[in-house]
């Protein structure tokens, strides 16, 4: 059950955790590598800020980004900034998103995201929560997949299982974690069952872990498409 008002509160709490962690860095750490290939921690922080503004655009009926190239250029522009500027931007952009969420009218309306993807407006706060929580992990600053709230991990696992559902390049797959069960993949091929800890399952589905800690029955661990 999607509750956008509750999700907005969760976004604020997750952002506060992110800001506390980022404030413990220094300029050298911000310029250092993150866990995302080719990106510094500054790139990750800049992306989180610009994503907030992009989702404000979505909620207010504008294109999420002017172009993909403009999105990338904005991140490259903002990545080298010193830590105080990064923190100020994170706070200000987060508040702009909260304001847009509070002003949002019909949560059942359809909105457009990147590359022609559409969704209900009610799902936008959770999409923002995913950006904040997973990219906090990507900073490599002491916040791990195991630290994510239980409810978030379950919801994001379900979200990603839905994303890969119906894919002809993914075999029919049952995913098991901590008593939860999800189905993903297409209808062709040998069915497999993947099981493991909630963090390891989410890490595999989100491309943040290689799945080596998981158990796979019925065949090899499926190779998932990039997000």
TrEMBL record:
<dbReference type="InterPro" id="IPR034660">
    <property type="entry name" value="DinB/YfiT-like"/>
</dbReference>
<protein>
    <submittedName>
        <fullName>Maleylpyruvate isomerase family mycothiol-dependent enzyme</fullName>
    </submittedName>
</protein>
<feature type="domain" description="Mycothiol-dependent maleylpyruvate isomerase metal-binding">
    <location>
        <begin position="11"/>
        <end position="139"/>
    </location>
</feature>
<dbReference type="Pfam" id="PF07398">
    <property type="entry name" value="MDMPI_C"/>
</dbReference>
<dbReference type="Pfam" id="PF11716">
    <property type="entry name" value="MDMPI_N"/>
</dbReference>
<dbReference type="GO" id="GO:0016853">
    <property type="term" value="F:isomerase activity"/>
</dbReference>
<dbReference type="InterPro" id="IPR010872">
    <property type="entry name" value="MDMPI_C-term_domain"/>
</dbReference>
<dbReference type="InterPro" id="IPR024344">
    <property type="entry name" value="MDMPI_metal-binding"/>
</dbReference>
<feature type="domain" description="MDMPI C-terminal">
    <location>
        <begin position="147"/>
        <end position="225"/>
    </location>
</feature>
<keyword id="KW-0413">Isomerase</keyword>
<dbReference type="InterPro" id="IPR017517">
    <property type="entry name" value="Maleyloyr_isom"/>
</dbReference>
<dbReference type="InterPro" id="IPR036527">
    <property type="entry name" value="SCP2_sterol-bd_dom_sf"/>
</dbReference>
């Amino acid at each position: 059950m999607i509750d956008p008002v509750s999700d907005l509160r969760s976004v604020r709490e997750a952002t506060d955790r992110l800001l506390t962690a980022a404030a413990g860095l220094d300029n050298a750490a911000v310029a250092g590598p993150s866990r995302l290939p080719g990106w510094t921690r500054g790139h990750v922080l800049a992306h989180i800020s610009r994503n907030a503004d992009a989702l404000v655009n979505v909620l207010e009926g504008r294109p999420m980004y002017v172009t993909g190239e403009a999105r990338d250029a904005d991140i490259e522009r903002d990545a080298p900034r010193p830590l105080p500027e990064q923190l100020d931007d994170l706070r200000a952009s987060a508040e702009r998103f909260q304001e847009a969420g509070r002003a949002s009218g019909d949560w059942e309306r359809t909105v457009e995201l990147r590359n022609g993807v559409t969704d209900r407006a009610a799902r936008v706060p959770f999409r923002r929560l995913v950006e904040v929580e997973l990219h906090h992990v990507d900073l490599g600053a002491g916040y791990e997949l195991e630290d994510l709230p239980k409810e978030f991990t379950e919801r994001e696992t379900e979200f990603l299982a839905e994303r890969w559902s119906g894919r002809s390049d993914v075999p029919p797959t049952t995913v098991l974690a901590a008593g939860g069960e999800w189905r993903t993949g297409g209808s062709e091929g040998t069915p497999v069952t993947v099981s493991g800890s909630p963090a390891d399952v989410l890490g595999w589905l989100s491309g943040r872990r290689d799945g080596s800690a998981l158990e796979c029955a019925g065949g090899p661990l499926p190779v998932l498409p990039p997000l």
